[in-house]
Design a protein that fits this description.
The structure is a single chain. By secondary structure, the chain is of the alpha+beta class. The protein has one helix and three strands, in the order βββα. It has one domain. It is about 20% helix and about 50% strand.
Length: about 80
């Protein structure tokens, strides 16, 4: 997650997800397991109000709920 303001001082939050994707592919040497690092932008959100910890955590949890992964997060 990263937070910044545009030239007009409008604050935005970008949330990225990073994971390792595992695939099994057939090669000349047989079946091989291939691990690929993946990353995607999963949220881009306007953040009105103060940049307090409470406000930022509420906005971050809002993004996690919208992409339906909040129930999978144990610690932030």
């Amino acid at each position: 997650m990263d937070l910044w303001s545009d030239p007009n001082l409008v604050p935005f939050m970008a949330v990225t997800a990073h994971w390792i994707e595992a695939k099994t592919v057939k090669t000349g040497e047989g079946m091989q397991h291939v691990l690929t690092l993946r990353a995607d932008l999963v949220g881009f959100h306007h953040v009105p109000g103060h940049h307090s910890g409470e406000n930022l955590s509420e906005r971050f949890l809002h993004v996690l709920e919208r992409i339906n992964v909040a129930h999978k997060v144990c610690f932030i």
